[in-house]
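Protocol step 4 of 6.
Sequence for PHD-type domain-containing protein (Gongylonema pulchrum) entered exactly as in the expression construct, tag removed. Do not edit the line below.
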Amino acid sequence: MLFVSVITVLQDCYGVPYVPEGQWLCRRCQMSPSTPVSCVLCPSSHGAFKQTVDNNWAHVVCALWLNEVHFANSVFMEPIDGVANSLRRRCKLRCIVCKKKVGACLQCSKVLLLPLL
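Step 5 output, structure tokens:
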């Protein structure tokens, strides 16, 4: 069975500085076309993936949302680095959407300001 993703990405949002001639494939389809993958930062197996420095896969958007995660090469937006640190810091957090402790959960960025008495 061949797993082929049908995704649309913006060049600048996926790290494609120039359009190659011929057929373009996302990095996941180039590297692991017959192997199902999932994001190490979230439980999803769909979307635009890039490899991590330790040869796992993560969504580009997950990498963008997490402060401690970054792209080793910012032009090509790969590989994704800082994943292990992010998972260590966030593994005990519970997702407010799915209520599970899976991946690197985000915390709310809102700050509650209490009046001084």
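Step 6, annotate. The helical segments are 11-14, 27-31, 60-65, 83-90.
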